Amino acid sequence: MLHISNLSKTYPNGVQALKDVTLDIGNGMFGLLGPNGAGKSSLMRTIATLQDADSGTITFDGMDVMKHKTELRKVLGYLPQEFGVYPKISAEEMLHYIARLKGIANDKERKELVKALLEQVNLYNHRGKFLSGYSGGMKQRFGIAQALIGNPKLIIVDEPTAGLDPAERLRFNNLLSEIGENIVIILSTHIVDDVSELCNDMAIIAAGRVVQRGNPEELLRNYEGCIWSKRVAKEEVASYQEQYKLVLSKLSGGQMVILIYSETDPGNGFTSEKATLEDIYFSNIS
Ligand code: ADP
């Protein structure tokens, strides 16, 4: 169990990236959903012990993470948002290197582990290729392989599908879903579908604050009967925005459709819609 209590962080340039963040996260896949700049990476880096918060505490299985950084790192698998440089070295060599760093000294054991990981992330046939020549999807799958070394109890993946095409994204999400349920996995993303497909628990973060928290079905139940849609002319959107609580406006088949939040029937030609996670997301980030 990961307990995050009252975490706040202001960068030297004055940006307050985290504002009193409190979250309890249990085993399974947890989705941290938020727009760019919401504070997701700041939170992920703090949990991963790569940066300090100004105030607040984090404990993992009862251990104070900030006081026991080395201990936390031993049970952590981390796939950062930016891996940085991909060297001219093969995936296989790199995994051996990282496994050695993580203390797997026995040659036979390490060989078996690296082979199993390459198979698990479907890169075995590409094991000799330089990482620098990998596609975006292959790089992310490699990222998961390195994160899994050492049987982590806590895995953090920060915006893993952001640059992937739909097929790569599907493949990556399938891989994530197979990791196992007996560990804490935190998936940070701005892609609503990643969370609805994968996560049994979630939070929405906006401007450094947790604005929604719960499991997706629970959150959807709270919005039942509250989302209404109407086709309007583009020029009318602004006036509807003044009159109603606009969730979003989008084009559908070339026509503008607005979605509003209303606990009672707004009349005026609106029809009731089944709430989606996307509606909840847009209701909470603006
Ligand atoms: P997200 O991962 O949700 O996009 P970040 O945690 O990266 O959000 O950023 C949150 C806010 O903090 C943004 O306004 C960002 O510009 C700012 N920020 C992030 N890292 C730094 C840093 N090292 N120094 C100053 N500002 C930062």
* SS summary, helix count: 10
CA(first)-CA(last) distance: 31 Å
Give the strand line-up of the largest sheet.
Answer: 6-7-8-3-9-10
Portion in helices: 25-40%
The bound ligands are: adenosine-5'-diphosphate
Kindly give the count of domains: 2
Largest sheet: 6 strands, mixed
Can you offer a commentary on this structure?
This protein is of the alpha/beta class and 286 residues long. The protein has 2 domains: 2-215, Rossmann fold (3-Layer(aba) Sandwich), CATH 3.40.50.300; 221-285. 33% of the residues lie in helices and 29% in strands. The chain contains 10 helices and 14 strands. Helix 3 (91-101) crosses helix 4 and helix 5 runs parallel beside helix 6 (166-177). The mean pLDDT is 93. Adenosine-5'-diphosphate (ADP) binds at residues 11, 13, 15, 17, 34, 36-42.
